[in-house]
Design brief:
Layout (H helix, E strand, L loop, with lengths): L20 H7 L5 H43 L6
Bound molecules: zinc ion.
Zinc ion binds next to helix 1.
């Protein structure tokens, strides 16, 4: 039975690690290659979502610091032209 947390090692990439449960399951037909590649695709999409969330967080932090900067400028009479 294959569960989440595939492979013997927590950092297993399921590509060439020895004793990998995934490589073994594909080799003996327990796991279809199609199913495995769709799992990898989902994993990639999840990674992308994580990155996107991180990007948005950074962006909101940037916007906050810009807002603080413009408040300071107002206090100082704004930019001189
Ligand atoms: Zn593995």
């Amino acid at each position: 039975m294959i569960k989440d947390g595939f492979g013997r090692f927590s950092d297993c990439q399921h590509k060439s690690e020895p004793d990998c449960a995934i490589i073994e399951a594909i080799a003996n037909g327990e796991l279809s290659k199609e199913r495995w590649s769709s799992y990898l695709q989902i994993k990639r999409e999840v990674k992308f979502a994580d990155d996107k969330a991180g990007f948005l967080l950074d962006k909101s932090k940037r916007n906050k610091s810009i807002a603080q900067l413009s408040r300071q400028n107002k206090k100082n009479g704004g930019f001189k032209k």
